[in-house]
Hints:
The chain is α/β, with parallel strands linked by helices. 40% of the residues lie in helices and 21% in strands.
Amino acid sequence: MRLLLVEDDPKIASFVTKGFREAGFAVSHAGDGETGLHLALHEPFDAAVIDIMLPKLDGLALIHRMRLAKVNTPVIILSARGSVDDRVKGLQGGGDDYLTKPFSFSELLARVQALVRRATGAGDSTRLVVGDLTLDLLRREVVRAGRKIDLQPREFALLEYLMRNEGRVVSRTMVMQNVWSYDFVPLTNVVEARMCILREKIDREFHPKLIHTVRGAGYVLKGSA
């Protein structure tokens, strides 16, 4: 999943970025409102975390312009202002949730995950299932045929993306955009290498094989031939 973080405090930005990347998100960070708006209008994101007090363009104005441009990315507002009036103003201004600083990262992560589930129509489901393969989003666990499979955060994010697109061919570019950050400069075979490792863990000792290469097009995960 792709997350846009618009935060001008370097310490908070570093802390939040690290946490979301460890949770399997591809994070794009902007340190001011204008850069954040440009990213929001030109890049696809599953969710955005936006501070209120930003240089160049404040958070509420940023969100307002996103909504005017019909960008419906779910937004969590971060703010040191915690009064009822401030919360109401933020939510009425286009935000989907409001979190007051200081905050715990675990709460922020849980709120982002809840927004993404609602936005994607997943309701309260926290599990993805394809055949005998199950991915638990809250426990960060993967089980196939009753056996737990240990995955690194990037492998978990890659498998999640494939499972959410079950039966659809996803290109290398699509994988890069949704599993890695938009500004990530990849090694020539980083996607292929990660896919190879994931295949080894998911398919090597099981049948049928779930992850397939579509020559010249990309990859597809499907539960049946």
